[in-house]
Structure formats: structure tokens, C-alpha cells
Amino acid sequence: MRSSRATVVVVLLLSTFVLCGRRATLSRLRSPVFAASFGEARRSAEGAKAAASPSADGPQRGAPPPGAPGGQPPPGGQRGGRGRGAVQVMTLSTTAWPDGGPIPAKHTQAGEEASPALTWSGAPDGVASYVLVVHDVDAAIGQGTDDLLHWMLWNIPAASGGLPERVPRGAQFPDGTRQISATGPNYRGPGASASGPPHHYVFELFALDSMVDVPAVGASPPQTRAAVVAAMAGHIRGKAVYVGLFRRP
Questions:
Q1: What pLDDT does 140 receive?
Q2: Rounded to whole angstroms, what are the CA distances from 183 to 101, 186, 189?
Q3: What's the pTM?
């Protein structure tokens, strides 16, 4: 009998101890200090989880940061040399044919192969020289990643407003202008075959804020062209384009 009573007393004491412990825990949980600490810990955990997992609005892992190479270019056009502003649109023209029209035989390999007279305007301030590149964008050469160069002149003086008809052959002129083509230091007229569609011959004029220190001799035309284009990078202040079509009759 005494043993049963002792057992009951022990059970009652244990129950009382457990209840007291639960009440103390609930009281601590309800206290303002614990609530603030718990809320701060929860917010820290959620912030860490958000930082580890990309959100729909944030950048994905592996994506380039804003402005990194490989992203879309900024609006407003290509930036000019030394950050002086957007590349200015210029005007390039000739009286030999309308822009986008057929090139007369006089200026092609089917005729006299005379270079056309060209004029340009709308150059921005601070121009130091011009570069003219004439290429057949429909004629793939090499591994198919380049096109055929028909004429390139660089270090054209900043005071120039055009080129006369029949520019003579020569690697460099007294005014500093240098020239090459796929076949030598001269204008190479269009010569697309009669068996295919007309080719597009693009005349591109670039206004630079510097000179181009690339010789016209000593390297192949593709290498010289690549060197000139590389030297132009970051110095283009203005650009104009004129197009002509041709195929042999």
C-alpha cells in the first residue's frame, strides 16, 4: 500500500515538473525580447535563401553583369572615340548612280574601271582623317567569314570633302592618303558574274578623330585591311554609307 502511494506521489511530482517547464517555455516565447530575436533570425534565414536562389527579377547565375561584353549594346548607337558622343550619321553621295541603283559599266571591270567621284558632308567636329572602304558583301572569301575588298583608302585629310573621279594608282599620295584593294594599290571595279544575281557594292566612309598608322605595303590586302579596322576602333566619330548594284551583262 505504501509502495502504491509512493508511486502516485512520484507521478504527481513529475507531472507538476513538466507542466511548470511548459509554462516557463510559453512565457519565454511570448516575451518581446524573444519575439524580436526570433523575427530577426527568420529574416536573416530568408535573406540568405533569396541570395542563394536567383529570382525572376534578378540576374541568373552565369549571366553576364549589366554592361558586360556579350550583352545588348546600349541605346543611342555606338559610342565614339574617347567617349565623346554617339557616332554621327554623315552623307555620302555620287552623281554616277542613285543610292542602291545599278553601277554604270564605266566604273566596273566591264568598262573603264574608273573610280567614281564621291562627295561627303555632315562631318562632326574634331575629325582628323577619313577612311573609305568599298567591298562586295555578296562575295565570300577565305573561310567564308570575310568579303571581297574592292578599295580602301585611309588617312584621307580631314579637310577633304570628297574624292575626284579616276583616283590614280599608288600606295600613298602626297597628301598622306594610302590605298589598297584585293589586287593592288588601286580601285578595283565591280565584276560580279552574269550568271548570278547582282552583287551589292557597299561604300562606307568613316570619320576618325585620329590618323591610322598602318602602312599600305608589306602585308597582304586582308591583313592590311584588318590592321586598319583594328586601328579605327574607338576613334570613329561619323559614318556614311552608299550602295551600288552590279553584275556583268
A1: 84
A2: 25, 8, 11
A3: 0.67
